[in-house]
Specification:
The complex is a heterodimer.
Chain A: H1 3-39, E1 41-44, E2 47-50, H2 51-57, E3 61-65, E4 68-74, H3 75-81, E5 91-96, E6 101-105, H4 106-111, E7 113-114, E8 120-121, E9 134-139
Parallel strand pairs in A: 1-9
Antiparallel strand pairs in A: 1-2, 3-4, 4-7, 5-6, 5-9, 7-8
Chain B: H1 2-28, H2 32-50, H3 55-69, H4 78-95, H5 104-134, H6 139-167, H7 177-196
The chains are: A alpha+beta, B mainly alpha.
């Protein structure tokens, strides 16, 4: 085997190893958050709110997006439930069970909803900004 | 030259149609790595047949143009730019002198490297461009998505390890000019009509 071939082989093995390590990491993250998902809680600014509690407290609304219509609770209502002061002065990081996270301004939060399936929907933003299996909302 | 141009438009259109139909469907199931692998396979096959550097970037340009007619989401140019970046990444990898080594080790290794990195580069570019063009870019969000990108790229890499040696199998297809151009025109037209009508 020539040097270039060995180099290519090592690079390929390294890349695949990084990929497998990432898959394992994602699996571990999911295992850790599974209990939280099963219990039906979302941590908002350090406060644990149950999904049932949120859906009892806030009024559901329907929004139309490029992927169809969705029904859920306005995210702004959830933020108000957690007792955040001056909400427009903060940024909000929504974190999913697989560790995927997206950060939003208050303007975006006001337009977004949380569905029963724990998915955030933002009609004015692309799909990559939507987070599924939401377990945590951090206020920055 | 005429044949190359027709081939570029044809395969770029097929790629664009696949992105708009199969790509959307696979994306819904979190299997974007499969679509990226199909795209890289298409580029590798056409490079092997036509042996023309630059053809794949041009194909990507045509596919991205088609994607623009059938955008996924609220960002019109994001997916288009990502497809074009995939084409450019392919051209850069194919500039490296690895093809002078004919061994299976090299083909499998480069299959893994190219499919893996082209998928990762395409995904990464959407994660940077989409927020930049639609809202605001947060570096923390990009760091958070890297394990997901690498995990997805592993699927693309494994597919590449099998797919790239396949593109080098001795296969000769000869089509006469009197059939080549009409077939090219009809298939291209079909792809464009299908995308524009939103099939």
């Amino acid at each position: 085997m020539e040097r270039a071939e060995k180099f290519a082989l090592i690079c390929a093995i390294l890349l695949l190893s990084a990929g497998f390590a990432s898959s394992l990491y994602l699996k571990k993250v999911k295992e850790k958050t599974e209990k939280f998902l099963e219990e039906g809680y979302i941590e908002v600014n350090g406060v644990n709110l149950s999904i049932d509690e949120i859906f009892e407290e806030c009024l559901e609304k329907e929004i139309s997006t490029f992927k169809g219509n969705y029904t859920g609770i306005p995210l702004s209502c959830i933020m108000n439930m957690s007792g955040i002061e001056n909400p427009d002065e903060h940024e909000y990081t929504i974190i999913g069970a697989d560790g995927y996270s997206q950060t939003f301004s208050w303007g975006d939060i006001e337009k977004g909803i949380l569905t029963r399936e724990r998915k955030t929907i933002f009609p004015h933003l692309p799909g990559m900004k939507w987070v599924k299996d939401v377990i945590k909302i951090e206020v920055n | 030259m005429k044949k190359l141009l027709a081939g570029t438009i044809l395969f770029g259109s097929i790629w664009g149609l696949l992105e708009c139909s199969l790509g959307d469907w696979l994306h819904g199931y979190g299997l974007s790595a499969i679509m990226a692998s199909i795209a890289v396979f298409l580029m590798a096959v056409t490079r092997h047949i036509y042996r023309a550097p630059g053809m794949q970037a041009s194909m990507a340009l045509i596919a991205s143009l088609l994607r623009h007619f059938n955008p996924m989401g609220t960002c019109l140019v994001c997916a288009s730019i990502a497809i074009f970046i995939e084409g450019l990444a392919f051209e850069i990898i194919w500039l490296l002198p690895w093809r002078k080594y004919q061994s299976y080790t090299m083909k499998v290794s480069m299959g893994v490297i190219s499919f893996y990195s082209i998928y990762a580069i395409g995904y990464l570019s959407t994660q940077i461009l989409t927020p930049l063009l639609t809202s605001k870019f947060y570096f923390g969000n990009l760091i958070g998505v890297i394990p997901k990108i690498l995990a997805g790229a592993t699927i693309a890499g494994i597919i590449g390890g099998f797919a790239l040696p396949v593109t080098y199998l001795p296969l000769k297809i000869k089509i006469k000019d009197k059939f080549y151009y009409p077939i090219t025109a009809v298939v291209t037209l079909f792809c464009w009509i299908a995308v524009i009508l939103g099939v």
